[in-house]
Design brief:
Number of strands: 10
Shape: globular
Distance between the termini: 22 Å
Number of domains: 2
Largest sheet: 6 strands, antiparallel
Helix content: 25-40%
Radius of gyration: 22 Å
Strand order of the largest sheet: 4-5-6-9-8-7
Length: about 280
């Protein structure tokens, strides 16, 4: 039996002065989402920011169903069309997800989301699967990496957690990951807790530390395997590999993780889809 959607009442500021709690009539002046009001930018963008604020501050937890578009429009004092456009963008940003016949929910991190949004390695013939992750190292130390410090907006010498993983696909080691995490954001994270997590690492961040990774900025380059990568991936030192530097970002583009991935591309490709739909499924 399907469970009823868990919905919460949320408090939102009216965005149009003089019409708190009143939805504009579709087709009326300003119903396109560009009507004037407090704040800056088109009205649908301000509606988007208002929704982002309640999600970021925990009023709508991951997995929670949003109120209906009619209720949101009434709370914001805007048209349903304006709300729909704001929600469309949040769906495209993977912050919300639509479930046919059930409503719109705050997105949660799960294996499927990780595979299609954040894991871009697949076999050369297009076969894609979730990797098997082996924890190789976990330690707390002082930050001594200038690139990580810049990416995480930290000072060298600040406390960080450093994690090393080996990712295996089709029984072959393909990726060597080295993650740097600000210790202040992940208080209580231990090697045991990380190794025994039931889901993906981003699911762990979200469920246990209230940190939702929304997107990642990446830079990729050709490289030669150093001794550490060669040992982990089982390739000769100097073998051609791809190096990917990723900064994972949460609300407000705040960095929460810096990751350097070394990918053995002998049998696998790094694939990134640049376009995205405006509406979720």
């Amino acid at each position: 039996m399907a469970l009823a959607a868990r919905r919460v009442a949320i408090r939102l500021p009216a965005l149009v002065p003089g019409v708190p709690g009143v939805s504009r009539t579709p087709g009326a002046p300003g119903a396109t989402g560009a009507e004037p009001g407090p704040g800056t930018g088109p009205l649908y963008r301000r509606a988007k920011r208002a929704l982002l604020q309640v999600i970021e501050h925990g009023a709508c937890a991951p997995g929670t169903a949003l109120p209906s578009e009619t209720e949101l429009a009434r709370s914001l004092g805007v048209s349903i069309g304006t709300v729909r456009r704001a929600v469309d963008e949040l769906v495209a940003d993977h912050i919300l997800v639509r479930h046919q016949g059930r409503g719109t929910f705050v997105a949660t991190h799960d294996a499927e989301r990780f595979l299609f949004q954040f894991f871009h390695v697949e076999r050369a013939d297009g076969h894609r699967e979730s990797p098997q992750v082996e924890l190789l190292a976990f330690q707390r130390q002082r930050l001594d990496d200038a690139d990580a410090a810049e990416a995480l907006r930290l000072r060298e010498g600040e406390a960080v957690l450093v994690v090393e993983n080996r990712l295996t696909l089709q029984g072959r080691p393909v990726v060597h990951d080295r993650l740097v995490l600000p210790a202040a954001l992940f208080r209580g994270l231990t090697e045991k807790r990380l190794a025994e997590r039931p889901g993906t690492i981003y699911q762990l961040y979200q469920s246990e530390f209230a940190i939702t990774v929304l997107r990642a900025a990446e830079r990729a380059r050709a490289a030669a395997a150093d001794r550490s990568a060669a040992r982990v991936l089982g390739v000769p030192v100097g073998a051609p590999v791809m190096q990917v530097r990723r900064t994972a970002l949460t609300f407000g583009d705040k960095p929460v993780e810096y990751r350097v991935s070394v990918v053995n591309t002998a049998r696998h490709d790094y694939v990134h889809v640049l376009s995205r739909p405006l509406r979720g499924g």
